């Protein structure tokens, strides 16, 4: 497959003629983002997914022809593929994807029809749709397309236009919408909020399409990761949670206490530090880059000083202290030295937030020790780091109120959607680690790492709770737009933009996990939902069963076995 160019010089105009047989059986016409070119448009990404599935399971090769947004109609017409539908003004509407199957002389110009065609023409792979569900999938696809089409204006803020043709593209959008300018085309203020609320309501209606039958979840058959109505409602509740009830206003002074926040140089971790710095605590910001850490620390101090200058309240008691500590979760050989750095300076550790992590990394990503990238960075290394800090955690327990010494792990609602049966597939992880392939399926691998964090929280509570007095819980901070999403395609970011919340709101989940009285020794090991709620029961009954059967202990010992040779 042609790889997307990485700079403006590499950018090539699309192939406009396919009269000759190409080097690979199928040519896939996709909409190009602005340089560096990469996939972003939702409908072509559906087709890319089906093509990749067939490439993996049926050895079907394809090549990509990238098309600038301004040339889509020209390309589709040159291929003699009919328009998709009509614009509101009656003119023909053209978009991509289109595939040309040179070996069979076929051209298909709709993402759903492409999937049906590939299943029919290349049946040697497992089917893309469970048996007898094609009509249901088509219905659902139409409904999803309508919901996102009706709210596409919300995505225009993040459209990765080609700078050379952006003006032409925006003018065309305005013409079709009957607007005089791009500023008039965009929505702001209350109009945007109303559109967001309507989008939320439409997502709720989509959830109603997921009914459960005797044969399993609607649309997805008997697959253990299929979305049931119960699951999608649970996900919606985490997408659009109630407002935080535990905020910085609930924090008392934390003088004399010592905290570690991994990944505190940006995103939720940085927002959490901004909440904690005014309380008088000593805060260790643990990350790889000293430069980025110092930039973040300066931002925290500057914002505090600015707020102090305009505040009439002079009884705060003064700020805390910020300390940088190097932590590279990608290399297990460095972890013990990072913990030793802390031990030379502190005798106690009151709370550690294992916040740092990676998500959706490119295929093939692995750690220095050749572990799958998500589980290696998000689970194995944080467990080693936390284990090395146990002497300081135990010391804090002896001089602190019961239940106030805590280890906070970070999970995600992606568990509900993509984690395999039982949460973590150790056999599959062993295979990837042994082969050194790195991550193979970003969504599933990331979901396993977040289920792994849940397991570590549960097993930590079992090991450290009644005997040590240390709390161990996990939390999902919510849908927060941070650098953890940096590897995701632009189309996905555009589609998800309406569901994102500010980092400071996600940090309230962290505050709840660290300080709320609703979390105590009697509730040790709980899963905390955004933006500060103890989950009563997770919808993944298979994972709950795995927890009851001892999977957290097995996963913990599996992680220990991986890091032992490197300490």
From TrEMBL:
<dbReference type="InterPro" id="IPR036249">
    <property type="entry name" value="Thioredoxin-like_sf"/>
</dbReference>
<dbReference type="InterPro" id="IPR036291">
    <property type="entry name" value="NAD(P)-bd_dom_sf"/>
</dbReference>
<keyword id="KW-0521">NADP</keyword>
<dbReference type="InterPro" id="IPR002347">
    <property type="entry name" value="SDR_fam"/>
</dbReference>
<dbReference type="GO" id="GO:0016491">
    <property type="term" value="F:oxidoreductase activity"/>
</dbReference>
<keyword id="KW-0560">Oxidoreductase</keyword>
<protein>
    <recommendedName>
        <fullName>GST N-terminal domain-containing protein</fullName>
    </recommendedName>
</protein>
<dbReference type="Pfam" id="PF00106">
    <property type="entry name" value="adh_short"/>
</dbReference>
<comment type="similarity">
    <text>Belongs to the short-chain dehydrogenases/reductases (SDR) family.</text>
</comment>
């Amino acid at each position: 497959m042609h790889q997307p160019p990485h700079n403006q010089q590499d950018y090539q105009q699309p192939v406009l003629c396919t009269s000759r047989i190409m080097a690979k059986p199928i040519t896939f016409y996709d909409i190009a983002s602005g340089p560096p070119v990469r996939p972003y448009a939702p409908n072509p990404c559906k087709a890319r997914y089906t093509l990749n599935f067939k490439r993996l399971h049926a050895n079907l090769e394809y090549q990509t022809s990238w098309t600038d947004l301004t040339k889509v109609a020209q390309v589709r017409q040159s291929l003699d593929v009919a328009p998709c539908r009509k614009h509101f003004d009656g003119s023909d509407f053209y978009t991509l994807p289109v595939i040309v199957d040179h070996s069979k002389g076929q051209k298909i110009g709709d993402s759903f029809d492409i999937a049906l065609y590939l299943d029919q023409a290349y049946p040697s792979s497992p089917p893309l749709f469970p048996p007898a569900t094609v009509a249901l999938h088509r219905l659902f696809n139409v409904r999803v397309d309508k919901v996102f089409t009706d709210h596409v204006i919300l995505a225009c803020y993040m459209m990765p236009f080609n700078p050379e043709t952006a003006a032409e593209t925006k003018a065309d959008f305005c013409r079709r919408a009957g607007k005089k300018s791009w500023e008039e085309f965009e929505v702001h203020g209350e109009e945007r909020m109303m559109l967001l609320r309507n989008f939320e309501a439409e997502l709720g209606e989509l959830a109603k399409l997921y009914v459960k039958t005797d044969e399993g979840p609607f649309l997805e058959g008997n697959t253990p990761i299929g979305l049931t109505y119960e699951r999608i409602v649970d996900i919606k509740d985490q997408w659009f949670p109630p407002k935080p009830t535990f905020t910085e206003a609930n924090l008392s002074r934390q003088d004399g206490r010592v905290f570690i926040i991994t990944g505190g140089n940006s995103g939720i971790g940085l927002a959490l530090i901004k909440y904690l710095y005014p309380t008088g605590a000593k805060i260790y910001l643990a990350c790889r880059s000293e430069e980025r850490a110092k930039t973040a620390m300066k931002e925290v101090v500057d914002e505090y000083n600015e707020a102090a200058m305009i505040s009439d309240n002079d009884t705060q008691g003064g700020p805390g202290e910020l300390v940088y500590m190097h932590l590279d979760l990608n290399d297990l050989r460095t972890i013990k030295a990072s913990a030793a750095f802390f031990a030379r300076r502190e005798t106690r550790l009151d709370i550690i937030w294992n916040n740092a992590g990676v998500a959706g990394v490119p295929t093939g990503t692995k750690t220095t020790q050749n572990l799958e990238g998500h589980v290696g960075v998000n689970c194995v290394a944080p467990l080693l780091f936390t284990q090395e800090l146990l002497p300081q955690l135990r010391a804090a327990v002896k001089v602190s109120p019961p239940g106030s010494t805590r280890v906070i792990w970070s999970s995600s609602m992606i568990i509900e959607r993509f984690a395999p049966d039982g949460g973590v597939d150790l056999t599959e992880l062993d295979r990837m680690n042994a082969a050194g392939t790195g991550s193979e399926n970003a969504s599933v691998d990331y979901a396993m790492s977040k289920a792994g964090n849940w397991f570590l929280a549960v097993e930590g509570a079992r090991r450290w709770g009644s005997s040590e007095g240390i709390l161990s819980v996990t939390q999902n901070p919510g849908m927060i737009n941070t650098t953890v999403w940096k590897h995701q395609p632009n189309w996905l970011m555009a589609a998800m933009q309406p569901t994102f919340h500010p980092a400071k709101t996600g940090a309230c989940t962290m505050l709840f996990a660290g300080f709320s009285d609703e979390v105590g020794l009697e509730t040790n090991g709980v899963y905390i939902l955004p933006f500060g709620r103890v989950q009563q029961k997770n919808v993944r009954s298979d994972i709950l069963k795995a927890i009851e059967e001892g999977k957290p202990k097995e996963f913990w010992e599996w992680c220990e076995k991986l890091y032992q040779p490197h300490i």
